[in-house]
Amino acid sequence: MHAQNGHTSNGIGQKLEGFFDNRQLPMYKDKPYSYAASRRRAPLYKQWRVIVGAVLGILALFYLFGPSASRKPRSTGKSRGGAGLSWLRGPDAAAVDWNERRERVKEAFMLSWDGYEQYAWGYDVYYPLAKSGDQMAEKGMGWIIVDALDTLMIMNLTSRLSHAREWISTSLDYNQDQEVNTFETTIRMLGGLLSAHYLSTTFPQMAPIADDDHGAAGEDLYIEKAADLADRLLGAFNSESGVPYASVNLKTSDGVPSHADGGASSTAEAASVQLEMKYLANLTGESNYWDKAEKVIQVIDNNGMEDGLLPIFIYASAGNFRGSNIRLGSRGDSYYEYLIKQYLQTSEQEPIYLDMWNQALAGVRKHLIVYSKDSNFTVLGERPNGLSKALSPKMDHLVCFMPGTIALGATGGRSVEEAKKSGKWGEKQESEMQLAAELTKTCWGMYKKMATGLAAEITFFEINDPPRMESDGIRKSVEITDEKDAAWKQDYTVKPMDSHNLQRPETVESLFYMWRITGDVKYREWGWEMFKSFVKYTAADDGAGYTSLADANEIPPVMKDNMESFWLAETLKYFYLLFSPNDLLPLDSIVINTEAHFFPRFELTKTLKTGWERKPRDSDGKIIVEKPKDSPKHERAGASVSVTAAEPSETVRTVKVEETKKDDT
Ligand code: DMJ
């Protein structure tokens, strides 16, 4: 392993010191980190004005994208530069060729992949500025290679896929004495392998490789690696409650409680391993994978959260929440995403998940949706001290998965037109689509607000006091216009420590869902503008790839030396899908995991099924605890105040409420 670019080489935590604020990688759900030691300015040639106007810029771009003598030629695809970067400059043509635009995305992917292949092949972390890499485990985890497999497939990059497969077959070995994050390893590695298995077996014409053909020696490579990895990960679920520990040792399969947060796991992490384990169970017939993952949701739900909204930490020991911080950003996000996606994965045969999703979405609308002060942007805020306390008008970029997921839930993945014809349409779906459209616009504004056109990690909004909630009347936002000093921008605030851009996918993910579901071309146009900003402002020297930004609000931007695996696995994949014909992986036949890996929908079986029921609860979601027959009163768990609630039965009865577990932070 190397000690390059200011990173030490002993152990993963040390290796990334100062990069992830002394935490192990990957911990993207953590707070922003400090950039003091690692801020680098973009080289001059990456300044937009220079790119547009100067001969120097043209030469630099040719250098960046043109054929490079030091790279070996590929048998597939065009030269790296394709038609050059003239497409970045001119005004968009009236008649847009979307296939042409998706070729530009493919070129950006090839540039990123080839840079990684040349400078850091087999490493889990890639520094495109230093042109070096690092490992997260001694022999590597395949972090970048496995995460990118299905993007290579849909882009039909056959020779690159062959190289990746060869590495997986000869070098990837999960039998390592290494503690890894349970969730990240599940969504990226297990998800990546399963998706590769799904695409290569169902769509053999995508990047066709003889080695994985039916009957060939390598036929089961992906599924074998996936099952081996999953068996190691299962140890994380051996907690007292069944809620997985934050980490797991891959060799011993021992679960390891989080080293921070009082040992509690992130709720989103515990509750976003289900799609992967359930698909693996479906493929292998092994119910163990299913049961372990299913149990987690039952334990969570038995907490009886108010209005379906839950705190962002949960103890694996007793299965109870830690604290009362509620948000759909870091540590909360994909719990909600996986509710509706579990319902869709099993072909709408598990109403329990639709029920939980509907309850949570209603809770979001009641407690977290707020309008910005002057321009009426729809903001999905946070309740850091619980639902009865003040709302914080803060949105992590991570929250921007939500509009696309709301649209997915409203139509099941069909277009609005098809959903209307199917009869499953009414006021509820109509208003969910409106909410999805407004939230998508808010996320798009996060990009337009910034000097580079690339969103900050966290954005705050100006709101009224008291906040204007949905119950005060639904509002429509003003138009997002281009002027530098446009008034709408005053509702957006980005703090200096939050102005980094980590190449995250959530907004383009939502644009993709919104385009497929509404057919409104503005989502494609927004995506194209975003994509151009990535190309203009995040390119590393010498065609080494694209990198994160430490400050996306300065031109030239301050660069951060890291190309995230989800840049290849998600961000570029969603751009590619956004510009692709809609019959590439129709949304009503698949589910896409939280790392953008594809799984098919399938049916329940006698052994692979939900297997539990929700406990009866009040209209606000609190569980009703039935008292012995001789008592006239009922109790419910989990709230902190006494209330009188109307029950659906004949009489109004008093409800005694137990005290919520106190935040022990
Ligand atoms: C990805 O690893 C996944 O999408 C995850 O659920 C949340 N965010 C990162 C990328 O931002």
UniProtKB/TrEMBL annotation:
Catalytic activity: N(4)-(alpha-D-Man-(1->2)-alpha-D-Man-(1->2)-alpha-D-Man-(1->3)-[alpha-D-Man-(1->2)-alpha-D-Man-(1->3)-[alpha-D-Man-(1->2)-alpha-D-Man-(1->6)]-alpha-D-Man-(1->6)]-beta-D-Man-(1->4)-beta-D-GlcNAc-(1->4)-beta-D-GlcNAc)-L-asparaginyl-[protein] (N-glucan mannose isomer 9A1,2,3B1,2,3) + 4 H2O = N(4)-(alpha-D-Man-(1->3)-[alpha-D-Man-(1->3)-[alpha-D-Man-(1->6)]-alpha-D-Man-(1->6)]-beta-D-Man-(1->4)-beta-D-GlcNAc-(1->4)-beta-D-GlcNAc)-L-asparaginyl-[protein] (N-glucan mannose isomer 5A1,2) + 4 beta-D-mannose; N(4)-(alpha-D-Man-(1->2)-alpha-D-Man-(1->2)-alpha-D-Man-(1->3)-[alpha-D-Man-(1->3)-[alpha-D-Man-(1->2)-alpha-D-Man-(1->6)]-alpha-D-Man-(1->6)]-beta-D-Man-(1->4)-beta-D-GlcNAc-(1->4)-beta-D-GlcNAc)-L-asparaginyl-[protein] (N-glucan mannose isomer 8A1,2,3B1,3) + 3 H2O = N(4)-(alpha-D-Man-(1->3)-[alpha-D-Man-(1->3)-[alpha-D-Man-(1->6)]-alpha-D-Man-(1->6)]-beta-D-Man-(1->4)-beta-D-GlcNAc-(1->4)-beta-D-GlcNAc)-L-asparaginyl-[protein] (N-glucan mannose isomer 5A1,2) + 3 beta-D-mannose
Keywords: Calcium, Disulfide bond, Glycosidase, Hydrolase, Membrane, Metal-binding, Transmembrane, Transmembrane helix
Enzyme class: hydrolase
Known EC number: 3.2.1.-
Biochemical pathway: Protein modification; protein glycosylation
Record carries keyword Membrane: yes
A Gene Ontology biological process term: carbohydrate metabolic process
Disulfide bonds: 400-443
Gene Ontology CC entries for this record: endoplasmic reticulum; membrane
Family: Belongs to the glycosyl hydrolase 47 family.
Protein name: alpha-1,2-Mannosidase
